[in-house]
Amino acid sequence: MPLLHLQREKQTYGYFSPERFVNSQGTRTDEIAMNPAYFAVCPPEEIMQTLCHEMCHLWQHHFGKPGRRGYHNKEWADFMEAIGLMPSSTGAPGGARTGDKMADYAIEGGRFLEAYESLMTDDYRISWMDRFPSREKLMAAIANGTTDEMAGDLSIMGLAGISVEDGEITFEPGERPNKSNREK
């Protein structure tokens, strides 16, 4: 069982590190790290894709033959496809399936989207996000239009809007609706 870890590693959505941690008895465990700086500016589907991408590295480390450090080989690419994610050097159709820096996209009708759609209901959501996402990540989300996809989540969380102060972009808390039957 890997240790799931939140890490603000620059320019990465997540990573896998084999046998990174050890307990007091000397037992080692792997690490899957996710970058919470992206949670506020990436659609939940992208966050889940990253988690599955790293889980494929975990699978390959224990049951396959990983390539050299950082290289995404054919075995890894085949496993990604089997779970419904298409590896792509560009993150879009037409990119290379293997290489050093790899992205992916969901395969229409694939296992990933089926599982994602059954998980992401009104009862489930990624409920925590960074109030202070980095400027470049937020600007990229604004540029590619993904902030609109998260408007409902931001509203539910009581985050009314985006403000810029001294070059720092932050989400401001909004007035939360009274969900109780008591007057406040």
UniProtKB/TrEMBL annotation:
GO terms for biological process: response to stress. Pfam families: SprT-like. Residues 10-86 form the SprT-like domain. InterPro entries: SprT-like_domain (IPR006640). This is Zinc metalloproteinase Mpr protein.
